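Hi Y.,

Following your request, here is the sequence exactly as I used it, all 272 residues.
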Amino acid sequence: MEEMNVEKNQFTSPCNNANSNGSVVNKSKSTPAKFPLTFWEMAVASGVVLSFAVGLVGVYLTMPASDYSFLKLPRTLEDLQILRDHLESYTSDYTIQVLVGYCVVYIFMQTFMIPGTVFMSLLAGALFGVFKGVALVVFTATAGASSCYFLSKVIGRPLLSFLWPDKLVFFQAQVAKRRKGLLNYMLFLRVTPTLPNTFINVASPIVDVPYRIFFLATVIGIIPAAYVTVKAGIALGELRSVADLYDFHSIATLFLIGIVSVTPTLLTKNQT
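Below is the corresponding structure, written out as tokens. Let me know if you'd prefer a different format.
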């Protein structure tokens, strides 16, 4: 934590300056907090939201007339089971609509850092099985992360400085130190819960992680966790809480995979 504070001081402007007599003069002023986005940045974000809304409306209009009061973002396992029970009857007859609706919702949640994608991953397993479910989750998670990456190029910096200034400075320093083995480091972050995936998505373009590396690390790195979650979705009725997904064995396995991913970088450093 002390290292993070030192790095933060290197990236932020000093509030105290010395005058000609050597004494320290405090020039900081208490200014009211301002919303970090400009009008045009908000317009871009609103346009993205509108495009997702149009996609969902299109799916809704092509579905048969019925009571869709069950359609809502699941926040508990009970909500998810109700959603699964209703969607199972539509999946076989309206597969395209269900797939498109699922993809739009998942990508929207990833783009705007809305929590709850773990429930969507469970739903993929419950509706489509392990193989198709993992492929669907990897596709939507990568598309959503990419959408967040490019949107962050426009509105990310002020939001990150406003929400996670310490994490941003830490991440920027780590990326700068690992430029030669950046892919391995990004794979490690994707596989392990060292940093939240939502933060990685929005912070990567700000700290100059190339999209090629970001994309490869996302596609490969989320497969292990996606497999664990999707497989659990098949036995959805046996889950008592989301915490059951990641027991000690699962967490240890993910960290082991993460360590293996950074081993080439460590070996290269030792040889040099």
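Residues 1-33 have pLDDT under 50 and may be disordered.

Thanks again,
Q.
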